[in-house]
C-alpha cells in the first residue's frame, strides 16, 4: 500500500496529486502541476530554479520564466496547505521535494525493481499505471519515459522466464497478465499467456484471453492479430480439440459505423459494467449526443469479446405503440425463429437466452417500451436489456447512464498538446478528413477547431455536420457562420435518417415530443444566459406557479433538453447553445421574445437590488454565491437593455446594485468597464437617480483601484444630481465616498467634514446601517490626523453596532482599521487580536480584498514581534492576489510590508530597493502613506541607512524607484517564497 504521507504524487499514466487523500485543488495554471511533477522526477534531489523555469516556460525570457515560477510556487504552496512543506528550498537558487512529506510512485517503483523479488516486481507493475506523464508533451519528460518502461518490461520478462524454467506455470500466468496490462498490444506476450493457460489445462482461459486481445486491437488500433498469431492460436486450440462457436456471434443485423468511435472510454466502461450488474440499462441524452453509436460499440464488444449474442431493435420508424412488439419480434428472429409465434409471447420464449438486446430510439414510445422491458426483465433473467432514449424508460430497477456532450477546453487556455488529447477535437479532425480526403491538425488550426467544437457544446452530431462544410469553407468561416447554425449544419450524405441530416431536424424531433407546458418553459429558458436557477425560471415564466415550474423543469431535465449542473449547494441549470437558439426562434415565432427578455431583465434587476442589501449583513457569502451562480444572466440582461432606450433605467439600477459584488469578489476592472458602458447607454443621463447611482458605483470602484481623481469626478457629479433631485440618502453615499477619496488625495480635514455630513444625512433618513459604516471612514480620517483616541472611539462604535446588528462585513472592516490604530500606537498584541478577529469573520463571509488585507496586516504585526518567517508566509499571498484584482493600493501596501519585514530580517538592500519602488507608486496613484504610518516607515529607513551607509542606500533606493514595477514584484515575491 502507498505510504501514509500528507502528499501523494503519481507520475505514471495521468499525473495525480493528492493532499491527505483528496485531489489537489485546481491551480491557477496547469504549469503548477508541471513544477510539482518535475520536482518529483528528481526523487528528493535538488533542482536549479533557472533550469526548472526554462524547462516549463521554454518560450519565455529567463527573468519572465523565473517570475512565472515564483508566482506558480506561491499558488502551489497555497493549494498544498498542510503539505506545503514538501517543497523545500535548500538554497536561494534551488528547490527540492521532501520525500519525508511526499510519497512518489516513481520512488517506490525503483525501490521495488531494485529489490528484485516476484512480489516486489509485481508491486512495481501495480504502481505502474502507464507511460510516465502520458498526457503531457513537455520535452523534459521524454528521456525518462522509455527508460522506466524498459526497466519494468525487462524485469517482468526475466521473472516469467525463471518461472517457466522452474515449472511454476501459475506464477508465469500472473506475471504475464501484469505484462499484458503494461503492453496490451504485444502479440508475443499474448501468445506466451495463451500457451501458459493451455499448459495449466485452462483452455477456456486461453480462449477468453484471445477474445480480449482481439477486442483490444480492434478498439485501440483498428486492426486484428497478425496471420502468424492467428495460425498459432488455431494450432494451439486444434491440439486441444477446442473450437470457437461462431453461432454465438450475431453481428449480421448490427449496423456497421463507418468511423471508429472517438473517445467515450469512460462511458463505454460504465455501460459494460452496468450491464453486468443491472437489468435494464438505459442510455439517456439529448438528440445528436451519440447514444446509438456508443450502444452499438458496446453490443459489438459483447458479441465478440464475450461471445454473446447481440440484437439491435431500431424503433425510430415505429409510430404506432401497438407495433412495438412486432418490431421486437422481427429483430429477434435470430434467437427465436418460430414464424408461428405470437409477438406478445416472444418475451416468454426468451427466458433462457443470454443475449443482449438493444432497444434504440425509445423516447417517443415510452409507455409501450416500459411494458415490453418490464416483461423481458420479469421473464428473461439472463437477458441483458440496453435502451437509448432522451428520457428514462421508468421501469423498476432501471439503471440510467447519462450521455453528455464531449468536454471542450476553453479556446484561450488550451495548448496544442491538450488539443491532440481532446476527444471532440479528434472527432472533428476525423470527420474533416472524411469530408476532404486529407486534414492535419496542427499548431496553426487547432484553436479554430476548438472554437467550433466549443460553440457546438461538444455535441458529436453537430461537430460531424460542421465538418462536412470543410469541403467548401475554411475553419474560421465555419466558426463565423455558426450564429445561424440551423441553416449551416446539414448534409445530403446517404444512409443517414432524415433526423440526422440536419441539426434542425434533430431539434424538431426532440421538440415535437414535448407537451405544451414543456415547450413554453423551454422557450422561456432560452432567454437565460449560462447557468440559472429554478427560482429565476419561475420568476420569468409567470404562466405557471413555482411548483408547476419545478414539475415541468424536472421533465425537461429527464428529457435531456435542460442540463442540471449540481455545483455547490444551489442547483443550477443551463441549455446547450443549439437548444437555446432553437427555443429562442420558437419564442420569436410567437412574438414573445421581447416580452420574455424584458421580464428576464426586470427579475435580475430586482434580484441585484435585493442582493445589494444582503451584501451588507452576515449573509454576505450567501448573496455573493447567489449572484455568482447566475452572473452571466446579469450581464446578459444589461446587454439586452442596451437595445432599447426604454430599458436604460433598469440597466443602470442593475449595474449599480452589483457594485459591492464586484468589490467583494475583486472583479474591480470588470465592474468598472460594465458600469462605464451602461453610463453611455442611450438616454442614461435622463434617468436622473439611476444615473447618479451608477456614477456613485463607478466612482467607488475607481477609488478601490487607486484612481482617486476619476473617483472624485464621478462622486462630485453624482452628489450634484442627488441634491438636485432631493435624494438625501444618495447624497450621503457620495459624501461618504468623497470622504475616502479626498483622504487619499491628502485633504484630511475635508475628509472628516464629508464623513460627518454623510453620517448626519444617513441618520436623518433613518439609515443606521450606512451611518455606522461611515463611522469607519471617520475613524480612518482621525487616524490619518494622529487622533488615535478619537479614531479608536469611532471604530469601536462601528464594531459594536455591526456585532449587535449582525452586520459582519462592517464589524470585520472596522476591526482591520482598529488593528492599524493599535499598530501605530505600538500595541502589537492588541493589533494582532484585532486582525485575527477580522480574519475569522472573513472566513465566514468571504471577500478577497479585505480578507487579504487582514492577512498581510497580521503578517506585519508578526514581523514587529520578531516572527519573521511567519510574517513572510502571511504576506506572500498578498502580491499575487492584489495584482490579479488590479488593486493598486493593495500592491503598494504589500510591497511596503515586505520591505518592513526585510528590515526585521536584516535584508537592508532588498528593503531599500522596495521602499524606492513603493514610494514612487504611492505618488503615481495619489495615495501616499498616512501620517500615522510614517513613523514606522521612517524608523525602517534609518535602519537601512545605518546598515548600508547613506551613499549606498541612495543608490539602491533610486534603482528601486526607477525599475519597472514587475521587476520589483518579482524581487519581493522571490524573497517571500524563499524557505
Provide a short characterization of the protein structure.
The protein has 979 residues and is mostly helical. Helix content is 63%, strand content 6%. A five-stranded parallel beta sheet has the order 9-10-11-8-12, sandwiched between helices. A four-stranded mixed beta sheet has the order 3-2-1-7.
State the end-to-end CA separation. 32 Å
Count of DSSP E strands?
14
Give the count of helical stretches.
47
Instruction: Output the structural class.
Output: mainly alpha
Radius of gyration: 34 Å
Largest sheet: 5 strands, parallel
User: Numbering strands along the chain, what is their spatial order in the largest sheet?
Assistant: 9-10-11-8-12
Which descriptor suits the 3D outline?
A: globular
The share of residues in helices is: 55-70%
Low-pLDDT sequence parts: 241-254
Q: Tell me the fraction of residues in β-strands, as a range.
A: 5-15%
Global mean pLDDT: 85
Amino acid at each position: 500500500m502507498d505510504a501514509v504521507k500528507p502528499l501523494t504524487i503519481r507520475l505514471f499514466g495521468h499525473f495525480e496529486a493528492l493532499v491527505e487523500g483528496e485531489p489537489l485543488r485546481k491551480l491557477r495554471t496547469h504549469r503548477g502541476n508541471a513544477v510539482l511533477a518535475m520536482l518529483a522526477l528528481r526523487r528528493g534531489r535538488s533542482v536549479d530554479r533557472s533550469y526548472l523555469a526554462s524547462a516549463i516556460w521554454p518560450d519565455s525570457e529567463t527573468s519572465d520564466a523565473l517570475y512565472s515560477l515564483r508566482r506558480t510556487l506561491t499558488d502551489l504552496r497555497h493549494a498544498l496547505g498542510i503539505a506545503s512543506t514538501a517543497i523545500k528550498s535548500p538554497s536561494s537558487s534551488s528547490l527540492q521535494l521532501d520525500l519525508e512529506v511526499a510519497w512518489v510512485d516513481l520512488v517506490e517503483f525503483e525501490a521495488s525493481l531494485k529489490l528484485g523479488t516476484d512480489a516486489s516486481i509485481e508491486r512495481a507493475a501495480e504502481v505502474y499505471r502507464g507511460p510516465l506523464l502520458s498526457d503531457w508533451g513537455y520535452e523534459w519528460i521524454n528521456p525518462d519515459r522509455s527508460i522506466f518502461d524498459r526497466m519494468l518490461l525487462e524485469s517482468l520478462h526475466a521473472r516469467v522466464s525463471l518461472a517457466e524454467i522452474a515449472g511454476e506455470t501459475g506464477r508465469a500466468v500472473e506475471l504475464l497478465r501484469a505484462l499484458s496490462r503494461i503492453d496490451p498490444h504485444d502479440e508475443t506476450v499474448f501468445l506466451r499467456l495463451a500457451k501458459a493457460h493451455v499448459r495449466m489445462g485452462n483452455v477456456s482461459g486461453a480462449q477468453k484471453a484471445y477474445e480480449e486481445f482481439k477486442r483490444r486491437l480492434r478498439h485501440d488500433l483498428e486492426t486484428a492479430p497478425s496471420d502468424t498469431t492467428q495460425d498459432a492460436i488455431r494450432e494451439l486450440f486444434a491440439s486441444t480439440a477446442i473450437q470457437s462457436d461462431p453461432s454465438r456471434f450475431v453481428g449480421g443485423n448490427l449496423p456497421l459505423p463507418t468511423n471508429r468511435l472517438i473517445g467515450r472510454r469512460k462511458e463505454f466502461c460504465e455501460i459494460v459494467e452496468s450491464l453486468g450488474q443491472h437489468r435494464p440499462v438505459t442510455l439517456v441524452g439529448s438528440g445528436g449526443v451519440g447514444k446509438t453509436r456508443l450502444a452499438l460499440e458496446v453490443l459489438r464488444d459483447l458479441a465478440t469479446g464475450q461471445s454473446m449474442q447481440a440484437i439491435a431493435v431500431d424503433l425510430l420508424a415505429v409510430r404506432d405503440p401497438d407495433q412495438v412488439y412486432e418490431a421486437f419480434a422481427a429483430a429477434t428472429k435470430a434467437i427465436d425463429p418460430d414464424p408461428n409465434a405470437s409477438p406478445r409471447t416472444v418475451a416468454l420464449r426468451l427466458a433462457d437466452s443470454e443475449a443482449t438486446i438493444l432497444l434504440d430510439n425509445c423516447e417517443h414510445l415510452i409507455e409501450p417500451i416500459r411494458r415490453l422491458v418490464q416483461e423481458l426483465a420479469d421473464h428473461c433473467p439472463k437477458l441483458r436489456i440496453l435502451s437509448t432514449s432522451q428520457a428514462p424508460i421508468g421501469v423498476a430497477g432501471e439503471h440510467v447512464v447519462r450521455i453528455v456532450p464531449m468536454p471542450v477546453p476553453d479556446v484561450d487556455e488550451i495548448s496544442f498538446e491538450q488539443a491532440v488529447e481532446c476527444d471532440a477535437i479528434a472527432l472533428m479532425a476525423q470527420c474533416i478528413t472524411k469530408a476532404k480526403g486529407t486534414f492535419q491538425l496542427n499548431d496553426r488550426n487547432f484553436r479554430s477547431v476548438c472554437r467550433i467544437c466549443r460553440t457546438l457544446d461538444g455535441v458529436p452530431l453537430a461537430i460531424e455536420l460542421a465538418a462536412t462544410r470543410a469541403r467548401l469553407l475554411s475553419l474560421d468561416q465555419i466558426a463565423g457562420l455558426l450564429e445561424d447554425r440551423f441553416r449551416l449544419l446539414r448534409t445530403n450524405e446517404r444512409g443517414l435518417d432524415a433526423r440526422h441530416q440536419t441539426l434542425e431536424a434533430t431539434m424538431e424531433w426532440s421538440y415535437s415530443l414535448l407537451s405544451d407546458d414543456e415547450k413554453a418553459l423551454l422557450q422561456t429558458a432560452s432567454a437565460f444566459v449560462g447557468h440559472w436557477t429554478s427560482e429565476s425560471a419561475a420568476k420569468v415564466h409567470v404562466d405557471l406557479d413555482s411548483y408547476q415550474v419545478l414539475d415541468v423543469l424536472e421533465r425537461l431535465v429527464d428529457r435531456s433538453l435542460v442540463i442540471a449542473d449540481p455545483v455547490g449547494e444551489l442547483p443550477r441549470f443551463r441549455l446547450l447553445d443549439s437548444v437555446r437558439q432553437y427555443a429562442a426562434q420558437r419564442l420569436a415565432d410567437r412574438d414573445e421574445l421581447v416580452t420574455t427578455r424584458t421580464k428576464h431583465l426586470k427579475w435580475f434587476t430586482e434580484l441585484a437590488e435585493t442582493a445589494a442589501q444582503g451584501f451588507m449583513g452576515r449573509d454576505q457569502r450567501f448573496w455573493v454565491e447567489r449572484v455568482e451562480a447566475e452572473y452571466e444572466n446579469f450581464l446578459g440582461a444589461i446587454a439586452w437593455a442596451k437595445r432599447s432606450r426604454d430599458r436604460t433605467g433598469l440597466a443602470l439600477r442593475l449595474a449599480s446594485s452589483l457594485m459591492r459584488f464586484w468589490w467583494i469578489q475583486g472583479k474591480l476592472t470588470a465592474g468598472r468597464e460594465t458600469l462605464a458602458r451602461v453610463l453611455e447607454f442611450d438616454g442614461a443621463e435622463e434617468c436622473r437617480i439611476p444615473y447618479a447611482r451608477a456614477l456613485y458605483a463607478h466612482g467607488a470602484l475607481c477609488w478601490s483601484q487607486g484612481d482617486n481623481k476619476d473617483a472624485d469626478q464621478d462622486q462630485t457629479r453624482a452628489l450634484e444630481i442627488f441634491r438636485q433631485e432631493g435624494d438625501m440618502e444618495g447624497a450621503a453615499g457620495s459624501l461618504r465616498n468623497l470622504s475616502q477619496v479626498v483622504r487619499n488625495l491628502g485633504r484630511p480635514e475635508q475628509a472628516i467634514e464629508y464623513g460627518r455630513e454623510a453620517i448626519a444625512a444617513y441618520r436623518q433618513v433613518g439609515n443606521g446601517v450606512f451611518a455606522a459604516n461611515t463611522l469607519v471612514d471617520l475613524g480612518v480620517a482621525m487616524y490619518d490626523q494622529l487622533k488615535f483616541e478619537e479614531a479608536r472611539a469611532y471604530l469601536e462604535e462601528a464594531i459594536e453596532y455591526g456585532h449587535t446588528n449582525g452586520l459582519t462585513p462592517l464589524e470585520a472592516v472596522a476591526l482591520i482599521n482598529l488593528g492599524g490604530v493599535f499598530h501605530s500606537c505600538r500595541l502589537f498584541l492588541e493589533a494582532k487580536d484585532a486582525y485575527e478577529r477580522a480574519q475569522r469573520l472573513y472566513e465566514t463571509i468571504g471577500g478577497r480584498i479585505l480578507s487579504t488585507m487582514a492577512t498581510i496586516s497580521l503578517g506585519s504585526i508578526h514581523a514587529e514581534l520578531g516572527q519573521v518567517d511567519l510574517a513572510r508566509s502571511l504576506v506572500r499571498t498578498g502580491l499575487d492576489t492584489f495584482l490579479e484584482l488590479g488593486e493598486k493600493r493593495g500592491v503598494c501596501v504589500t510591497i511596503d510590508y515586505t520591505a518592513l519585514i526585510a528590515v526585521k530580517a536584516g535584508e537592508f538592500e532588498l528593503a531599500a530597493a522596495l521602499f524606492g519602488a513603493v514610494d514612487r507608486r504611492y505618488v503615481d496613484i495619489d495615495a501616499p502613506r498616512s501620517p500615522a504610518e510614517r513613523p514606522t516607515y521612517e524608523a525602517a529607513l534609518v535602519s537601512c541607512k545605518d546598515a548600508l551607509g547613506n551613499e549606498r542606500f541612495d543608490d539602491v533606493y533610486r534603482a528601486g524607484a526607477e525599475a519597472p514595477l514587475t521587476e520589483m514584484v518579482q524581487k519581493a515575491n522571490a524573497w517571500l517564497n524563499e524557505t
